[in-house]
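Need Dehydrogenase's 3D structure for a figure. Predict it.
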Amino acid sequence: MTLRYGVVGCGRVFQRYHLPVVTDHEDYTLVAACDTDADSARSVLGAAADGILVTTSLEEFLTVGRPDVVAVCTPNDAHTEPVLAALAAGAHVLCEKPLAADLAEARRLARAAGADRLAVNLPYRFHELVPAFLKALPEGPCEITLTFTTAGQRLWRPVTNWYGDAARAGGGALVDLGAHALDLLITVFGRPRPVSCRVDAAGVEERVVADLEFPAGHAKLRIDRRSRVMGLTLEATAASGESTVLDLRRGEVRSAAGTVTAEDRRPELAAIRGFLDTVAGRARGRTVAPAQALEVQELIAALYADAECDQELTL
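Structure prediction for Dehydrogenase:
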């Protein structure tokens, strides 16, 4: 049976990540799209808009489109209504991270009726090299460093510029890239204790340096959303100096034992693929539950609560 797929929020995230996966998936057919700007939605959908319902009405989207599966790709502050409405309609829902711009709304979604049908797009915990990284880790306490850099909106070019609005986004680089980074750290090392956080601006920061304590040792999280270099590396260094590096940009684990190389060149799609496969009955255990996403968001909120602003902050 072919599953009916719909999207709420036809922006750049949907266009670059969700759309290519669903249009190539034999178990799904795209039937409906909901966006505040129908013309913009049709432009983003391109040829995929032919023959599907494109509407600005969430009610029409759900009652006429009748999707079995819904991707919620709206700005962060607009997740709650479509997620709750789609769950109430009986659909399975994949929500973009974070759960919401506001922690109270995130908790509401994580505890909503039907939340067992809700998943969140946090893909890097599923990276094929995570087991190899864990296997290669040196014994004993480590100094852990995760560095995440992107070129930001210079290359991203969002359809609407909500990323620069603190109320809509819920923050800056920490809630944006930090959600991915912290989820990966928690997956590998367990739940940390936040120690300190510095940001380069209040409201919507572009650079973050945070310190955390894990059972495995001290960790430094470094994020730069306006870098000239794209990169995501996780390094663990033992007291002996032995180091293990998970380099997601290059798709490598490098350690004293040698180099292991990934086959999947699009690891950012792992959570989308896993969700669609799980709902279609093709896979199990490849989704991020809302409770797991909430754990990440609560950690982000704790870091923001004690963050110091340093306009000269560098990594």
